[in-house]
Amino acid sequence: MAEQIVATVNGDPIPWQAVDFELQRLIHFYRQQGLPDDQIRLQLDALRARALDQAIGTKLLIDEAKRLAIPVTGDELDAQFETYVRQFGGDRSALEKAIAAQGLTVDAFKQELRQGVMINKLIEQICSAVPHPTEEAIRAHYEAHQSEYATQDRVLAQHILVKPDSDSDADKATARTKLEAIRARIVSGESTFADEAAAYSDCPSGKNNGGSLGWFGRGMMVKPFEDAAFALALNTVSDILETPFGYHIIVKTGEEKGHTPTLEEIHDKIASFLFHAARGQAVTDHVAELRAKADVKLA
Fold first, then answer.
1. 71 with 298: CB under 8 angstroms?
2. Per-residue model confidence as pLDDT tens digits over 111-133
3. What is the pLDDT of residues 53-74, one digit of tens each?
4. Do residues 50 and 58 make contact, with C-beta atoms less than 8 angstroms apart?
5. In which element (H, E) is residue 237 found?
6. Which of 277, 262, 258 has its CA nearest to residue 139?
7. Which of 107, 166, 213, 289 could in theory staple to 171 by disulfide, Cβ–Cβ 3.0 to 4.6 A?
8. 252-257 average pLDDT score
9. Which helix (H) or strand (E) holds 288?
10. Residues near 259 by Cβ (< 8 Å), separated by ≥ 6?
11. What are residue 179's phi and psi, to 5 degrees?
């Protein structure tokens, strides 16, 4: 299959694979920040557009680094290669197999690494004049964004859900009786909450995670469930409660109180954020200058 070209930069093609690489990096970043997959899917079009811009920017930086003839020593290239070896548990042959699976030779892979080192050096040059944030800037940011650093009360809980077969009183009574028996086995020690969830819960969390819902805060669950979970004592099985989904029992295994950190507590975090944001802006501005001078065509 012919390679899909999505843009050209000074006549050189930008393949879709380069854009997809940037897209996967963006998706990974937002997942690390805690953005749910459904929210990521809603933003895919915007992320693809951003990934295309980043792929074009990367090509512009590569060309600029080559124009400046930024040197890369053999030791620097070897050190970069070794970081990938370590990611494969020190198994060099496993890395080489992974490289081959991408249709690359080790030499071709090292050439890509060389370009990466050149770009990193170029970025350091671009950002060499970026100052560290002042104490006044750190304090101003904290005062403007204090609420964004605050954490809310949250709980860690497992649940078992039994859904009635219908809305009839008889089916509801059957579901409730089933859950009462489940609860009795757990409370008596005859069985564990996780085992009962795996065997009988009508929620996917039962089969996959022993009924665990992970950490959640207020506003993330239906109100009756939320109220019960937050009011429950630690490691105590709740009474049966009803929600629009059916009948539940809950066990709360962890809780954290909300906290608004002081400036001293997050001083270094803010300083790092502001410094890296300034570096990012310096690179963005430089790429914009390069792009203004380049012949960039979208396919």
1. no
2. 999 999 999 999 999 999 999 99
3. 999 999 999 999 999 999 999 9
4. no
5. none
6. 262
7. 166
8. 95
9. helix 263-293
10. 150, 151
11. -70, -35
**Pick from 48, 60, 53, 50: which is nearest to 12 by CA?**
60
Distance CA 279, CA 128 (A): 9
**Cα dist. 86→93, 130, 150, 287 in Å?**
12, 32, 37, 32
**DSSP track, 52-115:** HHHHHHHHHHHHHHHHTT----HHHHHHHHHHHHHHTTT-HHHHHHHHHHTT--HHHHHHHHHH
Distance CA 296, CA 299 (A): 10
Mean pLDDT of the chain: 94
> What's the confidence (pLDDT) of residue 2?
53
DSSP secondary structure string, 165-203? Answer: SSSSHHHHHHHHHHHHHHHHHHHHTSS-HHHHHHHH-SS
Residue 122: alpha-carbon gap to chain centroid: 28
Neighbouring CB atoms inside 10 A of 159's CB total 25
* Per-residue CA distances from 29 to 24, 36, 50, 123, 205 (Å): 9, 12, 13, 20, 25
